């Protein structure tokens, strides 16, 4: 458990128990895949942000309620559903150092269990009974789906612009971070200014997280990452390190990268790693992430200064410093 998990350790344990409880199904395969995904662990940053935000604003200390735990589980179910669908679309076979669900059980069960997790999340939302929460999360799941489709359209297209790239990561990744903070703010009765600041904080942390993720695909190693290095290239994904390297490199260097993206070909990974380093693309990507983290931390100024907001700063810094 990372240090910033410790300040909500009891809440976190309760959320894990709730997730197991809510995975119950009369269909054994649903439970098998659900438990397989939960046991894989992961950083659980999105539900963590729900817990930290709610506690930073004094909920549940003043309300005596535990609906923030339900929201954290809901956010994790939505995230896990997107991973199941994402791995099928990307034909991924490794996640968090283990075979993906689709590699274990096949595409059809993975898609259907992803649907189960989405619908279970909405069942839990109904029980909370907040139209504001439902509106935020209904919009979020819709935008995530748009982002997935947009990324699919961008695949194997070396002409994708930096602006278009940011649109995709905002929809695919950042919006769920933003929603995690915003729904907790709604639950805790935050002021409109606090709600907007927390939404912005989450969004910026999410963008930084994805920028670093895309950088790690060209700097990490499979054992640490829990996925294959060069997967993005094999899928023909034009991420920021490649977009910048094509824009600033020589015509020959740009052609090597463009051909690899166009063909979804990772066989030139070694040469492309050299180009990415030589053009300063990695520094450019990480500096963009640093800017997002600085802006995210600045959004916390309107919140009370307590152990929970301090942990939120640490989460933002972790999104930049992480190696997995």
TrEMBL record:
A Pfam entry, by short name: polyprenyl_synt
Keyword entries, A-Z: Magnesium, Metal-binding, Transferase
CDD domains named among the record's database cross-references: Trans_IPPS_HT
Cofactor: Mg(2+)
Entry keyword annotation includes Manganese: no
Keyword DNA-binding appears in the UniProt entry: no
Domain of life assignment: Bacteria
Family: Belongs to the FPP/GGPP synthase family.
Identification of the protein by name: Octaprenyl diphosphate synthase
Organism per entry: Cellvibrio zantedeschiae
Lineage: Bacteria, Pseudomonadati, Pseudomonadota, Gammaproteobacteria, Cellvibrionales
């Amino acid at each position: 458990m990372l240090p910033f998990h410790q300040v909500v350790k009891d809440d976190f344990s309760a959320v894990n128990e709730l997730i197991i409880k809510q995975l119950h199904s009369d269909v054994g395969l649903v439970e098998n895949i659900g438990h397989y995904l939960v046991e894989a662990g992961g950083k659980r940053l999105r539900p963590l942000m729900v817990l930290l935000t709610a506690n930073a604003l004094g909920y549940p200390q003043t309300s005596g309620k535990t609906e923030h735990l339900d929201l954290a589980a809901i956010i994790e179910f939505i995230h896990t559903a997107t991973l199941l669908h994402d791995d099928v679309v990307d034909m991924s076979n490794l996640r968090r150092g283990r075979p993906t669900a689709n590699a274990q059980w096949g595409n059809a069960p993975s898609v259907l269990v992803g649907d189960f997790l989405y619908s279970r999340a909405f069942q839990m939302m109904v029980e909370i009974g907040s139209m504001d929460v439902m509106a935020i999360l209904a919009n979020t799941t819709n935008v995530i789906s748009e982002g997935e489709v947009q990324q699919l359209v961008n695949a194997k297209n070396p002409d994708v612009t930096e602006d278009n790239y940011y649109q995709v990561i905002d929809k695919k990744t950042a919006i769920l971070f933003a929603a995690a903070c915003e729904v907790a703010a709604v639950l805790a009765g935050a002021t409109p200014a606090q709600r907007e600041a927390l939404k912005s904080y989450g969004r910026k942390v999410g963008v930084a997280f994805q920028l670093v993720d895309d950088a790690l695909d060209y700097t990490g190693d499979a054992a640490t990452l829990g996925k294959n290095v060069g997967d993005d290239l094999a899928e023909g994904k034009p991420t920021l390190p490649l977009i910048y390297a094509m824009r600033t490199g020589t015509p020959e260097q740009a052609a090597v990268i463009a051909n690899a993206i166009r063909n979804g070909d990772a066989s030139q990974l070694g040469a492309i790693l050299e180009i990415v380093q030589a053009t300063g693309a990695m520094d450019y990507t990480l500096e963009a992430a640093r800017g997002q983290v600085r802006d995210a931390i600045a959004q916390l100024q309107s919140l009370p200064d307590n152990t929970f907001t301090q942990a939120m700063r640490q989460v933002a810094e972790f999104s930049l410093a992480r190696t997995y």
